[in-house]
Amino acid sequence: MLITIKLIYLRIKKHLLILCHIFKYIIMNDKRKKLIEYAMFSLKLNKQDLADAMGMSYPTMLSKLKNIGSFRLDEYDRLNDILNLNNK
After folding, report:
1. For the CA atoms of the chain, what is the radius of gyration?
2. Residue 56 sits in a domain of what CATH number?
């Protein structure tokens, strides 16, 4: 009986940790998205201008802006340089 309760507890703990990581990922991506939108607004850049500066098509830029986590590291670095996010 005690072993069963302990196993249930460990499974619940594992699932809670996974959920915490998922929520943290969602919150961080939302913060990044808002920061990018604010930087674009400050620099008066629209999504088409940003896509041109990044060297990618407009539809690709739209999909990457919907899911910020889909940027590769080199793309995210380029985005930071274009929007001057390193100084904020």
Report:
1. 19
2. 1.10.260
